[in-house]
Amino acid sequence: MLRECLVSLLFPRRCPVCSRIVLPEGALICPDCVPKLHFIRQPSCKKCGAELISDRAEYCPDCQRRQRSFESGVALIRYDTVAQKSMAAVKYKNRREYLDFYAEAIARRYGYFFKHRKDAVLVPVPVHPARLRSRGFNQAGELAVRLGQLTGLLVNERLLVRTRKTAPQKELGPDERLRNLRHAFAVAAEFRWEPAPGKPDSRNLPGRAAGTAPELPQTVILIDDIYTTGSTIEACTRVLKAAGVRQVYFVSICIGGGL
User: 3-class SS at 116?
Assistant: First the structure.
């Protein structure tokens, strides 16, 4: 308790929106800054969770045009200029404390989503090892750990790995983004299992021999900070399902597109 008090005195919590010291003490965000965030409202896309204008539409334009391999997903806020600034501070200014607010808000708003998937495993979208070394952390991994603590779901940060450092996605279209991410992700070697020739594939079946690869989860919830075109989530989903995962969902802080 004393250590926490000293830390708060030396490093007071800052607001994820205005970056000033949060008041009142103990809060995760300035009360006046909450309305500056555009929380996703209903109706929303049944596939990616993006906000829709018409309550007659079931899917956003992106999900109408493109086949998605993942089941569905949810996001907390729209990726507008306020959100962009906040996410940039997390990644490039080491403001990991901002994720405390976002994780709590996601868990509170989408408690039903996690409750209905109580056997799911939270898997953060990985970053390339070179980027992890330069940044010092993976923001998706930090978010996943916090969500795991709040929801009680297991977190597996080793299941997915980034195998290729890709070109920046910002200037690429949706199809180009997906091509850019081809072969960029893989299931970690420790979770891969190859059946012997002529033997049935017994992945995820009870009674597997000792010493074989760890059991793959049946359901995965991918965790990421930003969902734009869905290319990253799609690429991860394809890899997971090819390895034997049956259902893949996603949760992100921000989402673009929709309407």
Answer: coil
Q: For residue range 42-96, what is the model confidence (pLDDT) as tens digits?
A: 999 999 999 999 888 999 999 999 999 999 999 999 999 999 999 999 999 999 9
Pick from 160, 93, 90: nearest CA to 128: 160
Report the top-level CATH class of 41-193+212-255: alpha beta
8, 146, 189 from 16: Cα distances, Å: 16, 16, 37
Which tokens in the block code for residue 18? 């205005």
The C-alpha atoms of residue 159 and residue 150 are separated, in whole angstroms, by: 21
Q: Are 157 and 122 in contact (CB under 8 A)?
A: no
Work out whether strand 219-227 and strand 247-255 pair parallel, antiparallel, or are unpaired. parallel
For residue 13, pLDDT over 60 is answered with yes
Cut 0.85: pTM above it = yes
